[in-house]
Design a protein that fits this description.
This protein is of the alpha+beta class and about 300 residues long. The protein contains 16 helices and five strands.
Length: about 300
């Protein structure tokens, strides 16, 4: 096994590693991440190839990073942004008591920037219009069957399949992974334009989200989900989410809302609306249960 590349990075702000990187984790069984006492592992694709990153706390506000694989240099260079160094919360001020509670509960929260569209885009497309359980099952299937085994010393860790690997998946294998035709077509369209979509990280903001939406099947919800993770977009609201308007409405105005009402309720946080939503989650705000959950569909049985 090759020796890893390493770097020590010092941060001058409170940092909760798990909380900052939690948006990149798709369920407790995510094959691309592993959380262990005192350290976190993350396997990802890069333009240079697969990479595995290990992050460990060291003394004096230092994070020790080790990386393996062809993409090791790229992921090491991205450690500061990944851990929120480029996140700028200037201009953000809680306008509701519940948001203030969230700020107090999550003092080590920053918005992460993975610096790469592809991995988070695949996961977001899989989450379109299905339950998280369905999407995360398909994510596990794709990574384990078509992704790269993560380089380095950890077993049972995989990267997402890269664009070439996605294009090579045969029709019956999509079905076996529980992925319907609409999401399959969107993934294939994204794979065909993957290189140009990475420019969204440079454009950022609304321009970056607009670029993503040029792909058929990618709308505002998917673009926002990618923006939140790929470049830490503080204002990207997941409009079109089944639960979010109810969560925001119940927390801020005491009743469920639709998307338009949600955006009005979040207007005091213009420029930081996603940040406000993250603090609502940190405050423990969840969607009230008024009806049974949707059944989990298994497209492999159709």
């Amino acid at each position: 096994m090759n020796e890893p590349l390493t770097r020590d990075w010092h941060h001058d702000y409170p940092l909760d590693l798990v909380r900052v990187l939690s948006p990149l984790r798709r369920g407790s069984g995510d094959p691309t991440t592993r959380v262990e006492p005192g350290e976190l592992w993350w396997a990802s694709t890069t333009t240079d190839g697969p990479a595995t990153l290990r992050l460990r706390r060291a003394s004096g506000g230092t994070v020790r990073a080790s990386a393996w694989g062809p993409g090791a240099e790229a992921v090491l260079a991205g450690v500061p942004d990944l851990l929120g160094a480029s996140d700028d919360d200037s201009g953000f001020a809680p306008a509701h008591d519940v948001v203030t509670r969230g700020v107090r509960a999550a003092s080590g929260m920053r918005l992460c920037s993975s610096g790469r569209v592809w991995d988070v885009l695949v996961a977001a497309i899989l989450e379109q219009k299905v339950t998280n359980r369905e999407a995360w099952r398909s994510w596990r299937e794709l990574c384990r069957r078509f992704g790269h085994p993560a380089p380095g010393p950890v077993e049972k860790l995989w990267t997402a399949p890269d664009p070439r690997q996605v294009r090579e998946i045969r029709d019956w294998e999509w079905h076996r992974a529980g992925i319907d035709g609409a999401r399959r077509r969107t993934l294939l369209a994204a794979a065909s334009s993957a290189r140009s979509l990475e420019k969204a990280v440079v454009l950022r903001g609304e321009a970056g989200r607009d670029l993503l939406q040029k792909i058929p099947g990618i709308g505002p919800w998917t673009a926002a989900e990618v923006a939140q993770r790929a470049w830490g977009d503080p204002d990207a609201v997941s409009v079109g989410d089944f639960h979010l308007p109810t969560i925001v409405g119940t927390a801020l105005v005491g009743r469920p809302l639709d998307d338009e009402g949600m955006l009005r309720a979040l207007s005091p946080y213009e420029g930081h609306r996603h940040r406000a939503v993250r603090y609502l989650a940190a405050a423990g705000v969840h969607r009230p249960r008024y009806a049974p959950r949707f059944p989990v569909r298994d497209y492999r049985a159709f």
